[in-house]
Each structure stands twice: as C-alpha cells, then as structure tokens.
Amino acid sequence: MSGLVHIDGTGRIYVNQYMGGDTVYLVTNQEMRQIESYVMNELRVPGILLMEQAGRELAKVITTFATTQNDRARCVRHPPKVCVVAGKGNNGGDGLIAARHLHAQGISVRVIALSSPAKWKGDARQAYDMAMAYGVELSLYTDEPTVAATCAEADIVVDAILGTGARSILSESVASAVRCINRSGRPIIAVDVPTGVNGDTGDVAVDCVCATVTVTFGLAKRGLYQYPAAEAAGKVIVADIGVPMAAIEHERPLTRLSSVEQLRQRFVARPQNSHKGTFGHVCIIGGAYRTAGAALLAGIGAYRTGCGLVTLALPKSVLTHLLGKEPELLLQEVPDNGTGEWSDSTAEPLRSVVTGKTVVVGPGLGRFANDHAWLCAVLQQSPKAVVLDADALNMLASDVTALTCARGPVILTPHPKEFARLVRRSVSEVQADRLTMATCFAVEHQVVLILKGAYTVIALPTGRLWINPTGNSGMATGGSGDVLAGIVGSLCAQGFSAEDAAITGVYLHGLAGDYAAKDVGEHAMMATDIVERLPKALQSI
To answer: Under CATH, what is the fold of the domain 261-540?
Structure first.
C-alpha cells in the first residue's frame, strides 16, 4: 500500500482502505507492538526505518494541513511555523524525525523536549542525534508560561509526548505540557494517539490533548473509535509505515471497522422466482397497552429490510387498536384478560406462534410477574435466532444464565444502561471500557452482543469485535432501538448468520439515520425517519 488512509471525523474512510482487501483492521496497542516486533525480528526491518517512515509521513501531513488551512483562509503562514512537543520515547522520536524533514524543507520548526538528551534511548535517541546533526532547534521544558508562549507563537503544534504509552494518570510535567498545547489556540496534530488518550479503550485522562488531527501509524488504534477518545482525536489519518500484510495476517487483529465494501459481500441477488416465504418470517413479541408503537416500529423495520413476512404477537386488547395501521403486518393475539399487558400465562400460547420464525423479543413488552421464567420458556421454544431487546434484556438481568435455555443463536441489543444491569456494573464503568466488557460478555455467554451508542460495538462469541462508523446523535430518540431490533431480526430471517445480521444491521440502521439527518436534521429526527430511509440505505449497499 502507498500513501495515506484518511478517516473522517465519523470514522468513514474516504481514500484507500488499509490492506486486507475490504477488511479495515483496528488494533490494540499490544497488537500493534506485536506486529511491529514481527516486522523487526522476523522480516529483519530495523526499528529506526519504521520510525523514519512514520516521521516522514507525519511531516507530509503537517505540510499538507498547512496548505489546506491557507486555502481556507485560516491565516496559517506559508511555510508554517511548527512547534513539536516531544517526550523521550518512540513517540518523541517520530516527532523529531518529522521536525528534521520539516527543517530540511526550510520550514521553521522548534522542538520542546520534556526530558534531557541523556534519557533518550534506542531508536528515539538515534532520531534525536539525527535531528541535532541537521540543526533542528531544541530546548528543554522549563516552565508552563514559557512553553505556552512558544506553542502560541507557532502556526501548528505537534503533540509527540506519549502516544500509545499514555496512562490514565499523567505526570505533572506531562499534564502541564498538555495544558500548554491545548491552550495554544493553534491547530494540534497528535502523533499516533493524543497524549492522555487510551488507545485500547477510548478512555481519556483528566488532562488529554484535544487534537485537530491525529496521525496514527500502521493501523488505526481501536480506542480512537470510542468516545471520549474519538472527540479528542479529531480527524484520524492512518499513515503507512511499511508494515506488510504478512505481519498483519500473522497477528490477525481482533477488532475491525465496518465498511460498506465489506458488507456488500453479504448480500446476494434475490431470485426472480421467489415468494414471500423465500425471505423468512419474523415474529415480534412485544407491544403492551401504552407501548404498542415500539412493536410496530420493529415490525416495519423488519419489512423494510427485506424479509417476506412479519407477525406482531400482541396482547388481545392492544391488537384491536392496530388493525389496519400497517396492512402488511400479520397480527397474532395472545390472551390478556382485558388488561392490554403481558403475563407469564402467555408462554404456552406463544409456542405455536414462534414455530419456524426468527423471533424478536422486547420492543414495548413491559415487565410482569415471573417474567424471567417466561423469557426462559420463549427461548426454549425458538429453534431459530432470537433477538433480545428492551424489556427482554431487563428480564434477563436478574439471571443471565437464562441464555443457556436458548436453542438457537441469541443476539442482545442493549444500550449502556441496560448492559450495565446485565454485568452488574455502573454505566460509567461500562462506558470507560465498552470494548473489553462487551467482548467478555459475548465470549462468556456465547452470544452476539450489540452495545449501542456512538460507534456501536458488535462483540462476537469468538472474541472478535466490530465497531460501526455510521449513525449520529439524532438517532438518540425513542423507537430507534426498536427499529434496529427489527432490522437485525429481518436479516436473520433472510439467512444471515447471527454475526453477519448484527454487523450489517447496525451499519444499515446508522446509514439510514445519516440519510435522515441530511434530510430533516439531527434535532428533528424521529424513529420513523430512520425507517423511511432504510430503502435508500439498502440501495447504497
């Protein structure tokens, strides 16, 4: 591969994808270290060459960025004046090599080193020696006001302090330097990972660099695709440092970013001699008296995603109010004693209803006495895939071992609060490490877990993870999750594996939401706007 892979602020790749055909790998810090170790030890590429390539690509981004800012009349001098704030490790070495290349081009560049030269070791020390031989101006960190003034005098500030070596608690000298960088008022380009950002989890330190652009090397770090790190990273640019596909395949990173090119492979042409039974039958179990709309949205979402038949199983008193609302939907009543609510007595009547169907349980369902035992019974009755959403997840939270009752694959679709109940942790703990918690749960219980939110996470029972780049804040609205449950159920009914249905369904759902945001704006969006744009999302894939 040559050149740069650019990923915009929403995670969409808009130039080339990184190697691996249509697969976009994301890595943990440890996975990237192991890949680089393979390149150096097995392929005999010296580490300084990888660092040289990283620094050269970083310098290219800096000069390109300055030119772009000038074109936009942002008043950046040309050539720009650059300030590189460097730590003593390899991140600082990358920054020093970039400074050397900029200096060689006649660009004014000044390096502020947080450690004395005596503390620089290995490849970073070699980068330091080369920069000094070229005459790059370097001064040691003195005090916060002086460093702040130096940063403010520059046109572009480069954060080359810690990168993937960042910890949740920064030393006072590093935190001080971070404050100087952030207060400079200048565009900030972070090297590999902004200082103070956890490249594995997406969590951030109290003081972290808030970058305009992050230039990450080799492969994108997965933490950059989770909030709050995604906001701190700004635009992410993945720079090629000469890592061959053999090294990536040897490590086989566990995390991937969903892409439209990869998802297209899952769709096949619909046979012309098909009928409604060809594309599967989804049964939505939910919709109590005051929340029938949730089941309705799930059902329409399922139809709009291409399944042949959709049945809504509803309390008898609710069903009569939905007659004719959506004429395509099949309505199946269950006894409710005139209450319009579900009860544990409905388990047996559902047995014949779910036979032969993919089942979605939860949209608008509500809670009732003995509902955990009721859920176990439904899981035992359903040999095909089951999607658990909303109140079905709350039922499950009392005892997740109910998942062992399932006869077929199970897909869970919790938002962070629902997932926190499932794992008996706080929401803040979940959000601090969504990726690890989702993976552990999916592997332990052998389910597919969709942990919703910005950059929705899809964790597979194999331990692999997918991160979804589509969607926007307008989708944080009532009914949006019900639509997603219907979409995923529909794809399962059409023959997608549980894993593929979850990955593809989340992407489609977010893409439809992005089209809705363009048409009606994020503030005004409703779940029905998402449903209405599912055809366009499908057509684009």
So the answer is: UDP-N-acetylmuramoyl-L-alanine:D-glutamate ligase (3.40.1190)
